[in-house]
Amino acid sequence: MADACCAPGPAAPGPAASGSAASGSVTSEEVAPAAIWRVRELRFAAVAGVLLLASVAAPGLWAGGAAAWWASGLQLAAVVVGGATFVPEAVRALVKGRLGVGLLMTIAAAGAVALGEYGEAATLAFLFSIAEGLEGYAVARTRHGLRALLDLVTPTARVRRDGRESEVPPAELRVGDILVVRPGERIATDGVVTAGRGSLDTSVVTGESVPTEVEPGAVVYAGTVNGSGALEISVTATAKDNSLARLVHIVREAQERKGASQRLAERFARPLVPGVLVLAALIALVGSLTGDPAVWIERSLVVLVAAAPCAFALSVPVAVVAAIGAASKAGVLIKGGAAVEALGRVKVVALDKTGTLTRNRPVVIEVLAVPGGDRDRVLGVAAALEARSEHPLAAAILAAWPGPEAPAADVEAVPGHGLRGRVEGVPARLGKPGFVEPGPLASEVRRLQDAGATVVLVEHDGSLVGAVAVRDEIRPEAAETVARFRELGVEVVMLTGDNARTAAAIAAQAGITDVRAGLLPADKARIVTELKARGPVAMVGDGINDAPALATADAGIAMGVMGSDVAVEAADLALMGEDLRRLADAVAHTRAARAIFTQNLLLSGAILVALVPLAAAGVLGLAVVVAVHEVAEVLVIGNGIRSGRRRHLPQRVRGASIQEAA
Description:
The protein is of the alpha+beta class. Among the domains are: 157-242, Calcium-transporting ATPase, cytoplasmic transduction domain A; 307-358 and 476-595 and 608-662, Rossmann fold (3-Layer(aba) Sandwich); 363-471, Calcium-transporting ATPase, cytoplasmic domain N (3-Layer(aba) Sandwich), CATH 3.40.1110.10. The strands form four sheets. It has a seven-stranded mixed beta sheet with strand order 10-22-21-20-11-18-19, with helices on both faces. A six-stranded antiparallel beta sheet has the order 2-1-3-9-4-7, with no helix packed on it. A six-stranded antiparallel beta sheet has the order 12-17-16-15-14-13. Helix 2 (65-83) packs parallel to helix 5 (118-141), helix 6 (144-150) runs antiparallel to helix 8 (243-256) and helix 9 (260-290) packs antiparallel against helix 10. The model is unreliable at 1-34 and 648-662 (pLDDT under 50).
């Protein structure tokens, strides 16, 4: 932005950042918006304004020639003070071979002084210094998303080493250390709870307002707040490698990525600067040959200012950075302007099933016993056979069994079918229909399978005792999200590697009619390519198997930024939490941002088209052109900042109140 817009190198109104984005380290020393009166350019502008006003009052304070002398002196002083905010940077940029808008303003101010138009030169310096200050301040204000993440870094962490507790900087934590986190304290880095129970406030990281209950074995992340009960946490990642460092790294990268509109603005603005210099020189030369040189040289200086692409170059960056910052506060990481544009154009959303529409945490939904049988016996035999299994279905069955753990003996897996072993000294089997015959439960098994459940039949001592139905439950907000997408005019498609019966059951609950099941990762990528015939496509997934489709889509969205590294890297956006309603919010938010920077481009382009011929014709003077330009820039900045307003789900969908994403 330095060479293309008003500020050749706007100084950020705050302390310089430290820490490397490339390394992913987290530091609280970051560019932070200062109070507006502390912005250097605005302080200089205020002094220049006072000097300019004093020059206007000079005739009333001094008589005769002294008044003119004092007025000229005060105006020249205003030029020097106001010019100090952009002239040095413009000269340094010129030495390095860069032609920026600051150079146009410098030449215009110098030319006005040479022609004796001290008042106009002072007005230009005064207004342009205001514009530089407001620009720097506005851009800094839009970076609150990154600053909010940096504010999550705790200054110290309480660690237990060799039986003693001490406080150390988070940077000194090592994998395997035991963190002691008291109620109300923030967790310094990622880890696993080893002792204690409590509830974590994860809203600052994931945007989700409901506290998460944790107990020994639970994975916890840096930046979350312990609400109740002391916790002991085994450190699994250092401060520079934890989830919070990764979030900061992603946001920093996002601020550097540019979309097509931003590149268009820059492609237009960069060559315009030398073009304006050539145009102004031609106007001065041709006009001087045919008329009064003083008149035409002055007009050429006015054209220099009129054609400055300042507002045009600012049209997209301010809006994009504001949109990214606001989205990150709401739990959505948008990786730059290209992602803002891509998601804002989306007409089709392809949703993975497992881990996206569902929680990827199977639970037992029903236990059936044969007529005259005992439900507890069914679950007990199943739990005994599954006691040492690492299969996801085993975890669901063991979680549903309230009794003591009593592992079966001689357990062996029958690949593709189930398990067999000895429970209470007699043979037992567990597996899918066909491996164990459903007998009198056949109709119930079909019912459960039609409902999307996986059914395992349990046999003990040679006889069928019952069945256990396990299902990965759909997220409660899935139907609301699909309905909201339809309100936004977005088609929804489900892509899954699961079988067609299970996929159809989940799709029916979510309100999705277009279902593609039994897909391999390559199939998902192929279907995403086919869907592009309907319009730009967003793919939403959470695992390694979704990475090809995420990379193929116009906008790839990773569910849960704490999840698969491969999915997050392949995606253009990432949800920090797992609330699907963030997806609809993100589409609405990016659509609004695209509309805003399109407005900015049209406004700033129209101003350039109108001002240049009027300036060349002598209709507008230097002071008027400067004033119009700077007012336009303020309008563009102010309009761009509106992209920082988060868009929520504003109404009830299917009778359910939709929670705001803030």
